[in-house]
Amino acid sequence: MGETSNTNTYRRLFTSKVYRFENFLEPKNATEVEQEEFYSKLHDFCIPDDLDDINKPNNQENDTLIESNNSEAM
Prior knowledge:
The protein contains three helices and no strands. The chain has helices spanning 2-13, 32-40, 60-73. The model is unreliable at 60-65 (pLDDT under 50).
């Protein structure tokens, strides 16, 4: 009985869902400049296949950015 309970708890904890967010409301009190920024934002939702890669940069551009930030800190 304990094994079944553990299995059900495990399934509830590690079940994921994918949500699709569409048809966002427009910002009503935003200025024209703020609205342009709102619509021009790029979102990078890159999810790695391997959990070990989660803290690694997504691409070469990020590598360069990190290296330049590290050299400025020294």
